[in-house]
Design brief:
Distance between the termini: 45 Å
Low-confidence stretches: 6-13, 329-333
Radius of gyration: 20 Å
Oligomer: single chain
Number of helices: 6
Helix content: 10-25%
Order of helices and strands: HEHEEEEEEEEHEEHEEHEH
Strand content: 15-25%
Largest sheet: 6 strands, mixed
Number of domains: 1
Structural class: alpha/beta
Number of strands: 14
Mean pLDDT: 93
């Protein structure tokens, strides 16, 4: 009995530990099926200015998978974004934000703070870019994505850093999303992403690409310049004439032949036909975001993505939303 008790305690202790790229709480995809990330856009109308938006990007511009494994460069050791899964008992710690008037300091009905693992202060690969929170040379977007699986909350921080001199976590901005809600950020508010959207639900994840089911959500994409924002985004990060707004949706055209690709790549591209790409940040044109995972094979992904050009996409009518009837049908399935 003592041995059984010890094993139970060890099991409970292990379950309480934060896990990088751990199992996400079901049901999947993240957020309700009626959420914009999970909306079927295959029959949505094309925007009248679709061709001009594609021309602004550059019709011959190829896609790029903005994810992968270890780069071998100690100053930027990983490709893609890690995410962290924690239990409801993970301690919450306060975070000081640069954009404090557009950031969440705690979840409704919960104590203030974010469930940041202690290990992230000094260990690599808990934060986008791979460097530890206390690294003085860290730069870039440094997103930190945390899922509290028990309370069904998603915590996301931009420009995450540990300030040892002040003994506090700091970030550019932060947002908390209840996983059972379709609530948008207030108009004009950012999140951990420039568009004011959640990041994790738009990442290509290894577990779903190689799982048994189709991918049932849109993907996060960046373009070099943007112009305002449209639904479902809530925040602008540019006013470049002719550029797409934050929240715009790109859809891989139905007639693009994807049969020549490996089956798992076909699965990714089919999701781009059914759910599309959502413009979420300024960055390199047609960079599609995914998770950090050493199992990705970029020798397959890079040439496959680059062979699909911007001209193979069309822009869905800006601000398009599924009808109330279709949202009800999605919620029932």
């Amino acid at each position: 009995m003592r041995v059984a008790g010890v094993l139970l305690l060890l099991s409970l202790s292990a379950a309480a530990q934060p896990v990088r790229n751990g199992d996400l709480p079901g049901p999947l995809p993240l957020f309700p099926l009626s959420n914009w990330w999970n909306a079927d856009i295959s029959a949505a109308p094309v925007d009248p200015k679709s061709l001009s938006y594609i021309a602004f990007i550059g019709a011959s511009r190829g896609m790029h998978p903005d994810f992968g494994g270890d780069s071998g460069d100690p100053s930027a050791p990983i490709y893609g974004m890690p995410f962290i899964v924690v239990g409801g008992s993970q301690p919450l710690v306060p975070v000081t934000f640069d954009y404090d008037d557009e950031s969440d300091y705690g979840a409704p009905g919960r104590p203030l703070g974010y469930p940041i693992p202690e290990e992230a202060k000094t260990q690599q690969k808990w934060i986008e870019g791979g460097l530890a929170g206390n690294d003085p040379n860290a730069d870039g977007d440094r997103h930190m994505l945390i899922v509290d699986r028990d309370n069904r909350l998603l915590f996301e921080i931009y420009a995450t850093r540990w300030n040892g001199a002040a003994s506090r976590w700091e970030g550019g901005s932060g947002a908390i999303f209840p996983l059972d809600s379709n609530a948008r950020r207030p108009d004009g508010w950012t999140s951990a992403d420039a568009a004011g959207l959640a990041i994790l639900p738009g990442l290509i994840r290894y577990d779903e690409v190689f799982g048994p089911d189709p991918i049932r959500h849109a993907f996060r994409v960046t373009v070099r310049s943007t112009n305002g924002y449209v639904y479902p985004a809530s925040h602008r990060a540019g006013s470049t004439s002719g550029a797409l707004p934050m929240g715009a949706r790109l859809r891989l055209k139905a007639n693009v032949d994807i049969s020549r690709f490996a089956p798992y790549v076909q699965k990714i591209f089919q999701a781009m036909k059914t759910y599309g790409l959502i413009v979420a940040d300024n960055g390199s044109d047609m960079y599609v975001s995914g998770t950090y995972d050493t199992r990705w094979d970029n020798d397959v992904l890079n040439p496959a993505f680059s062979s699909i050009k911007a001209s193979d996409f069309e822009v869905v009518q800006l601000g398009w939303q599924p009808s109330a009837a279709s949202r009800r049908r999605s919620a029932r399935h």
